[in-house]
Amino acid sequence: MAGEPSSIDHTAPSVAPSHRMSEIAWYSDSLARASRRELAAYVLLAFGFTWLVHASFVVFDIRFSLVFGAPGMLVYKLGLLGPLLGAVAVSGWTRGWRGVRELLGKALRWRFGWRWYLVAVGTVPCLYVLNLLLFHERIPHGYACFVFPLAPILGQAWVVMAEEFGWRGFALPRLQYLFGPVGAALLLGVIWASWHLPMFFVPGSPQHGSHVLADFASYVYGMTCFTVVMVVLYNRSGGSVLVGMLFHASLNIAAYVIRIPASVDVTNLLVGAMALMALWWMPRPWFGRGGTVPGLVDGVDDPSLPRGFRHGPLAGDRC
Q1: pTM of the model
Q2: 75 lies in which domain range?
Q3: What sign does the dihedral 130-133-138-143 (CA atoms) show?
């Protein structure tokens, strides 16, 4: 996400030290109002662009495909740009090129603890492999547990760049400031899952199934659990979009590569346990406005302001 929303008025007159708390309250309210407006604009643009493009599958009877160069793949990949375009548009409108540079620059924040790299890359594949090991005796003989479809694996670079600048770079810090880290995770999980809704009606897509309501409910649950972990990664990395890209790519690649028979699939339980464990590393307080939000207000370093108004990584996460 870009830094400080431009709609906050920095020209307000300074106040005496005895009125410092009033100034802080004014700044907090101004930041909250700006965050709400920018979130509303972002969601409208991200959903509007993606849903309009993906509606082409139905309107023009385009067959979904993950084959390079196929019309279905081109339409699918184009629609994924909604979050990126929405984040860039709102950042540019509110803060100009500086806001866009700060948003895109979050992908270059790589100086964080190596353990968070391991969490980002290894968590979901380990859960899937654990599922296979727990029920290996019940897996049919000759069943191919591992496949390597080249096109969707190579396509993850486009997927994560199209999505993560919007969901984690732009929306997450604002939601976290307004609702706290756990509140933001719950809301963003539902929003992120709902953005995929049109694909539940497109045969051949990863989300399509025979029971739309049940499939979508399960999808919302899974995406929310994954978002809890991604909120932890975002905060522990000091507001890095790169770590979100790594987790997102690892999640998708694991889903394509590791095949679990439906009769022994307990990944929903394992993913839920993962989210509960992630709460241990979640910043406190879990709910409510304020608190430390890396990357929300870049450039505001006044030590007398609340922690939520100052940028920078959380302490103790360099190992």
Answers
A1: 0.86
A2: 19-309
A3: positive
